[in-house]
UniProtKB/TrEMBL annotation:
Its main location: membrane. It is a peripheral membrane protein. Belongs to the ABC transporter superfamily. Drug exporter-1 (DrugE1) (TC 3.A.1.105) family. It is found in: Cell membrane. Gene3D superfamilies: P-loop containing nucleotide triphosphate hydrolases (3.40.50.300). It comes from Streptomyces griseorubens. Keywords: Antibiotic resistance, ATP-binding, Cell membrane, Membrane, Nucleotide-binding, Translocase, Transport. This is ABC transporter. Residues 5-235 form the ABC transporter domain.
Length: 329
């Protein structure tokens, strides 16, 4: 089965900036692709090309089975787009915003009203439905923007940095909403600067840098390439270090070429690459305890987007901070 989203060799130049330098993507139907990359990597440009807002200089794209360059109108009718900069009208209420979108899609007034109510409920905005969007918090605006993209039932959705600038609680809420959406069978392409977000939401992750996809795979595969997750243990007694290392080695992720358990004798520290996160950590603590090995410290070190970038490109990604500050203004 062909992907719900396919792009081949997308190139887009702005003056002397090569925003896209041959982007290839494929998103199988019903799955989520996370387009992960730092500021300026080309994420928004990719989304704009795939959603007909921008014409690539070169390359081709098919979305929902329709050629994007040949039939942009038909593509537009099959997709939903939730933008990095919300397409919400500040001076309309939440309800009016959603009804307006329905009318743009030529729904009957009654149907548009019913759909608006349904979405306001689903996105926890019912209580604020009759307030102007101007009075909404950042999180509420994002949810309204997302709801607006779902007024008609698009088989393919694009979300450009849906949670950038949100606080952790709002980010979590939005993740839940997105997960619900995807469990309903929607194909989703999502851009993000956060590995953690791609990790939570995406089946597959494509890492973009300087207009190119530089790596693609599941989150575990990408993490493994960066050295992956590690458990670090500091034992209390130096004489326990070998027993503890042997125990930890059982949990070590082998065959990744990343090396196995390492012991730093003088620090009483053992490090082992793992996959399985917090659950595994609890198990290791129980086993060490059962063996009577006292520990001074134990922790899970997860690779960050910076680690992934450093390992893939040899240069540090620009921090996500700047964009957060931007969005917070
Ligand atoms: N309309 C535009 N005019 C000029 N340069 C642009 C335009 N849109 C994007 N760019 C440039 O293209 C590159 C990729 O931008 P963008 O796709 O917005 O990246 P991202 O969304 O990953 O932050 C950046 O260098 C950006 O400055
Ligand atoms: Mg962007």
């Amino acid at each position: 089965m062909p992907g719900a989203i396919q792009a081949e060799g997308l190139v887009k130049t702005f003056g002397d900036v090569k925003a896209l330098d041959g982007v290839d993507l494929e998103v199988p139907e019903g799955t989520v692709l996370g387009l992960l990359g730092p500021n300026g990597a080309g994420k928004t440009t990719t989304v704009r090309c795939l959603t007909t807002l921008l014409r690539p200089d070169r390359g081709r794209a098919v979305v929902a089975g329709i050629d994007v360059l040949k039939h942009p109108d038909a593509v537009r009718r099959s997709i939903g787009l939730s933008g990095q900069f919300a397409a919400v009208d500040e001076y309309l209420t939440g309800r009016e915003n959603l009804q307006m979108v329905g009318q743009l899609y030529q729904m009957r007034a009654k149907a548009a009203r019913a759909r608006a109510d349904e979405l306001l409920e689903q996105f926890h905005l019912a209580d604020a439905a009759d307030r102007t969007a101007k009075t909404y918090s950042g999180g509420m605006r994002r949810r309204l923007d997302l709801a607006a993209a779902l007024v008609v039932h698009p088989p393919v959705m694009f979300m450009d940095e849906p949670t950038t600038g949100l606080d952790p609680r709002n980010r979590q809420q939005l993740w839940d909403v997105i997960k619900d959406l995807v469990s309903g069978g929607t194909t989703l392409l999502l851009t993000t600067q956060y590995l953690e977000e791609a990790d939570h939401l995406a089946h597959d992750i494509a890492v973009v840098d300087q207009g190119k996809v530089i790596a693609q795979g599941t989150s575990d595969q990408l993490k493994a390439r960066t050295g992956g997750e590690r458990v670090e243990v500091v034992v209390h007694d130096r004489e326990h270090i070998r027993t503890a290392a042997a125990l930890l080695d059982k949990y070590s992720l082998r065959g990744t070429g990343q090396g196995d358990t390492t012991v730093e004798e003088h620090m009483r520290k053992i490090t082992t690459p793992v996959s399985g996160g917090a659950k595994l950590l609890a198990e290791i603590i129980r086993e060490l305890d059962a063996d009577g090995i006292e520990i001074d410290d134990i922790g899970l070190r997860r690779p960050t987007l910076d680690d992934v970038f450093l390992s893939l490109t040899g240069h540090v990604a620009e921090s996500a901070q700047s964009d957060d500050e931007e969005a917070a203004k």
